[in-house]
Design a protein that fits this description.
Blueprint: H1 9-21, H2 25-34, E1 45-53, E2 59-68, E3 73-78, H3 86-98, E4 102-107, H4 114-127
Parallel strand pairs: 3-4
Antiparallel strand pairs: 1-2, 2-3
Length: 129
């Protein structure tokens, strides 16, 4: 019998912790609005690892900017770097959707109108059964 793929959870955890320490300014702004169940009473985690099967020989993971477990919603804050990684983002979203996740992408510029962003997130959450 073949050995099952193994994760080094400590490496994944450390990666997520580093991302939490080094959040972008846009991520910080949104986190201040999401923390403490401020949006429709839903709890969000920041820089949360999500495991998935990468190929036949190993598993892999993505780290979501913000994750609501109750609704299986991932919020991604897209800055200028995402203009160069559109193909990867499509692949990532596809893999996450296969896991039953719902992805809402928010552009940095949208955060200038935070109330509109929060309404958008709340509406999105409430549309999911």
């Amino acid at each position: 019998m073949a050995k099952s793929p193994r994760f080094d959870f400590n490496v994944i955890k450390k990666h997520a912790q580093e991302l939490r320490k080094n959040m972008t300014e846009s991520e910080r702004l949104l986190w201040n609005e999401l923390r403490g169940k401020k949006v429709s009473g839903y709890r969000f985690l920041r820089q949360h690892p999500i495991l998935f099967k990468g190929n036949l020989t190993r598993y892999n993971y993505f780290i979501a900017d913000f994750y609501c477990d109750k609704k299986k919603v991932i919020l991604e804050v897209d800055g200028p770097i995402h203009e160069e990684s559109e193909e990867y983002d499509r692949y990532r979203d596809s893999e996450l959707e296969k896991l039953g996740m719902h992805i809402l992408r928010i552009k940095n510029e949208e955060l200038e109108k935070m109330n509109e962003v929060l309404n958008k997130i709340s509406t999105y959450l409430n549309q999911i059964n």
